[in-house]
Write a structure and sequence with these properties.
The structure is a single chain. Helix content is 50%, strand content 14%. It has two domains: 94 residues, 4-Layer Sandwich (Deoxyribonuclease I, Chain A); 104 residues, no CATH class. Helix 3 runs antiparallel to helix 4 and helix 4 packs antiparallel against helix 5. The strands form three sheets. The protein has a three-stranded antiparallel sheet with strand order 1-7-3. By secondary structure, the chain is an alpha+beta fold. This is Reverse transcriptase. It comes from Deinandra increscens subsp. villosa.
């Protein structure tokens, strides 16, 4: 059982290129390799293309996942999705065969959070709460730490909610503009202009908490 994943640097049909040169002979060779190798390919969602160059004008579907027949028969409902291009000219691919639950996310505390005075005050107030029960000291300590952990988790959620919304809005906007640029050259120029203006503004806003921590 095997899986081939990567940039094959070739397409299978003319519609897998846009404003990019299509070579029918190379496509035939690639299709013959898939056909005679008894290789299967899953349909891809999320985007029509996986590679962009030329300032976001040229598009191609170069990245794909090919599997053997045994793999395909075992996971016929597997899904393949292309994510938005954010830090590369290639789209990341998510290939999902089955879902698994690994349990709750473990609690984490970052020392950089101590840069926020309101959190330090919140922790001190949580530790100052008296436990008048007759339980053993270690039970009281465990209960107090659990209470402080809950306070920290609530603070992190409230502190990051607004920032996460801004980040998600920016990602959604970039994704929408990326999809729009795949279908229209004119809209690509329009999107690039607004991405430049909005991106600078949003980056400055999102970097303010980081700058405060680094001071």
């Amino acid at each position: 059982m095997w899986v081939l994943i990567g940039d094959f640097n070739e397409v299978r049909a003319p519609e897998e290129r846009r404003f990019s040169e299509f070579c029918a002979r190379s496509a035939d060779v690639f299709n013959d390799f898939i056909l005679h190798g008894n290789v299967k390919e899953y349909p891809m969602g999320g985007a029509r293309y996986t590679f962009s160059y030329g300032n976001g004008v040229n598009f191609s579907k170069l990245d794909r996942i090919l599997v053997c027949e045994e793999f395909f028969n075992r996971w016929p409902r597997a899904s393949l999705r292309a994510l938005p291009r954010m830090w590369s000219d290639h789209s990341p691919l998510i290939f999902k065969c089955c879902s698994k639950d690994f349990g709750p996310v473990p609690f984490r505390f970052f020392s950089s959070w101590l840069k926020f005075p309101e959190l330090v005050t919140l922790i001190r107030e949580g530790l100052a709460v008296r436990d008048s029960s007759s339980d053993a000291p270690d039970i009281k300590l465990c209960r107090k730490l659990k209470h402080v952990k809950g306070l920290i988790k609530n603070w992190v959620h409230e502190h990051n909610s607004a920032k996460n919304r801004d980040i998600q809005d920016l990602i959604t906007f970039c994704s929408d503009m990326d999809v729009a640029s795949e279908s229209s050259y004119g809209s690509n120029l329009y999107c690039a202009f607004w991405l430049l203006l909005l991106g600078i503004q949003q980056c400055l806003v999102l970097l303010q908490p980081v700058a405060a921590i680094l001071q």
